[in-house]
Amino acid sequence: MTSISVAGKTVDTWEKEIPQLEDLLSLKEIFWINEAKIPFEEASSLVPYTKDDVNDAEERLNRFAAYLRIDFPETEVANGIIESPLSSIPFMKEYLETVYHSSIPGTFLLKRDDTLPIAGTIKARGAIYEVLKHAENLALEHGLITSYADDYAVFASESFKSFFSNYKIAVGTTGNLGISVGTVGAKLGFDVTVHMSVEAKQWKKDLLRFRGVTVIEHESDFTNAVEKGRQQSNLDPMSYYVDDEHSIELFLGYTVAANRLQKQLTQENIIVDETHPLFVYLPCGIGGSPGGITFGLKQIYGDNVHCFFAEPTHVPSMTVGLMTQKYNEVSVKDFGLDGLTVADGLAVPRTSKLVASIMKHFFSGSYTIDDFETNRLLSALIDKEKIFLEPAALAGVPGALRLFQTEEGKSYLEKHHLMDKMEQATHIAWATGGSMVPKEDMDQFYESGLLSPLTEKI
Ligand SMILES: *Cc1c(COP(=O)(O)O)cnc(C)c1O
To answer: Could you tell me the pTM of the whole model?
Structure first.
């Protein structure tokens, strides 16, 4: 095994060069600090995107609110804006402090993207944005609308649906991206095809077929399903491919979350500045959602926000990509990991080059979480707060504890002179999905959590 060559070096050599890689490859839970992170101003000068791009995406979603409230009446209460609450979870906080024998100083909050309307996962942010932008482009090109100032309620009309039925949209997915793209795409009238990887749950396929989407099942992992979908779509000039590996539109859709979060924090009188740091813990699959949200938050809070991403011990694709600085050139499978996890939304063996290269100077670091811990946290959150998350969505929950309890975490706090500011800090665990999971599946997750052994921490 160890003599296998990955990106020109044996695994042995890689492990000698990067000491934490050995722990990572033996499936230990690790906390990793990204040494490539640099001050915000400097990092910004290295990427071609700015706050203007975030605001442009936000304005597009605002224009489409008039459409969304008609075709998706569940968005009516928020005037057509797809957003989720920011909640305090005091009983869960107490549970975490007890089980991990540690306290979490400062404010501890959960961002409830599990309750996002239309699709019930964080994908609703990026994917719906990309589909809407594509629809807007087609409508402008063909004169169905003439300017951004038009009333976008017309997108709900029969004539628009009949126009879009001439066009196709395709996507490759572990499931959740397909649900977001498929639901909105089909509602607008597009002919949508979703390529599913092996991880995709049966209920996700059934739901999409019920919503009028064509589902193609592949007996292969995510990377492969994406590739197959892309090849097929590229053969057809009428087909638009939502590309999880390369799409800047998806990324920009996710960034808008930051502007919305800023409003919520202000409403709650939560300050973020040099003496009040903000820590955000984001579950990471291919990297688009944690990357986009981090990028957006950095535009607002600069060096006062610290973003960590969380990955399953069996699929640490972004961590491996950044540690080795080979990004998308290495898959966790090249290093002998099986890529299997209960957190199906994070089962992505190879990270996105686009996201990794934009984000490498912004992310603070990452940590891994094993499936037992994920399961236990899932049941605990149900017991303590009656909040039902899907497994992937739990990954951010232990982040604050890891920061305080690991040597790497503590050294990060010291290096950035944060130790004496922790009483005024805010920690946000980003809950990325859950409300769509059928009851039987959720019952099973809950049972697994009760049966999961309490592994020795740190
Ligand atoms: C996709 C997904 C993520 C991670 O998003 P990426 O863009 O793949 O990094 C996290 N949680 C859930 C529930 C997801 O579906």
So the answer is: 0.97
